[in-house]
Design brief:
The chain is built from ten helices and nine strands. Strands 3-4-2-1-9 form a five-stranded mixed beta sheet. Strands 5-6-8-7 form a four-stranded antiparallel beta sheet, sandwiched between helices. Helix 2 crosses helix 3. The chain has 321 residues and is α+β, with helices and mostly antiparallel strands. The protein folds into two domains: 126 residues, no CATH class; 169 residues, NADH Oxidase. The chain binds flavin mononucleotide (FMN). InterPro entries: Nitroreductase-like, Nitroreductase/BluB.
């Protein structure tokens, strides 16, 4: 194979691996275009949650996780690459530069990308060890964002914020209809959240998980969140590029957590509602912009992970120009 074909193959593979990326309500709001020796990432307005996420923040975080996933795949193939994040569309452009030896951690990250998933069951009574938390904070910092671990009082403030955000979204008919279109029921088309990964009942926890108001079939366990750690992913900016970078950091953080057998559950409601987002911002001492609240915890190794959430076929998210 000549170098040109090799690059093209690597780019298609990277875009394909990015299909594993997490996204708000599994909307997968991205499209990749392989353009010569470049891979371009675009946001897809038809798969934006226009009611719940009018500013596109969750779309950008989701596209950021896809961008990071594509980069992990290039690393695992031994391609040193450049990334450009032009302000606007495309959101990002990846360009392989040269072949380099594959680093062992690149292979591990690539494996984690296929193992990682959202687990909405309750966590165990075992806390995430301090040194693991420190590692996760460091990894986030090295990847363009920050992670603020909440103290006890702040967890209670987050619990109130999560309730208020849920209440605000439940009270908005258009948001409720939008959620119903993406969660529960049978979804053969590879988007949205199937009943198999949603709890039978929303667990009773201090900080409530998102209630999708649909019957799930996942046994959630009889635990709670007394031993969970809550944290806020945040960054220095509030522009589109900052949210995209926030998504890249989220992906890196989530893969690192998966590697350490730590479960990460995103709680985006409090960030979506401006009033509760302000509460989160105060928790950061008004110095940064909150992107996402997350629950970190340990899972019972004796129980098996929930089923995988399906994805759109490659043909619907990748164009080869
Ligand atoms: C930006 C973002 C926000 C999310 N917010 C929530 C949330 O509030 N509640 C929840 O249960 N899952 C949330 N998720 C998880 C997605 O629903 C999940 O990634 C998607 O359904 C795909 O499933 P998977 O992560 O198991 O591959 C969020 C994910 C992302 C990337």
């Amino acid at each position: 194979m000549n170098e040109k074909d090799e690059v093209k193959r690597a780019l298609v593979q990277a875009a394909d691996a990015a299909r594993f990326a997490p996204s708000i309500h599994n909307t997968q709001p991205w499209r990749w275009v392989v353009q010569g020796d470049r891979l371009e990432l675009f946001g897809v307005a038809e798969r934006q949650l226009h009611e719940q996420d009018p500013g596109g923040h969750m779309l950008l975080l989701s596209c950021g996780t896809a961008l990071h996933h594509a980069r992990v795949a290039l690393d695992a193939e031994g391609w040193r690459h450049e990334v450009d994040r032009p302000a606007g569309e495309p959101l990002a452009v990846l360009r392989p530069v040269e072949r380099i030896p594959v680093a062992p951690e690149a292979t591990r990250h690539f494996q984690m990308l296929q193992v990682r998933r959202t687990d909405r069951r309750t966590v165990t009574d075992e806390q995430v060890p301090e040194d693991t938390l420190r590692h996760l904070v460091k990894v986030t910092e090295q990847n363009g964002a920050r992670l603020h671990v909440l103290g006890r009082d702040q967890v209670l403030a987050l619990a109130v914020a999560a309730d208020r955000a849920q209440h605000a979204e439940d009270g908005d008919e258009r948001i409720a209809a939008e959620t119903a279109a993406w969660a529960g029921g049978d979804r053969p088309d590879g988007t949205g959240i199937p009943a198999s990964v949603l709890p039978e009942e929303v667990p009773l926890t201090t900080v409530a998980e998102r209630d999708f108001h649909t019957t799930g079939t996942l046994p959630a366990g009889d635990g709670h969140d007394a031993a969970a750690t809550y944290a806020v992913l945040y960054g220095e900016g509030d522009e589109a590029e900052d949210w995209l970078r926030g998504g890249e950091a989220l992906s890196r953080l989530w893969l690192a957590a998966t590697e350490q057998a730590v479960s990460l559950l995103p709680l985006s409601g409090p960030v979506e509602i401006p009033f509760t987002r302000q509460t989160l911002r105060r928790m950061l001492g008004d110095v940064g912009f909150p992107y996402l609240a997350v629950r970190l915890g340990t899972l019972d190794p004796a129980t098996s992970a929930p089923p995988k959430t399906p994805r759109l076929p490659a043909g619907q998210v990748i164009d080869v120009a």
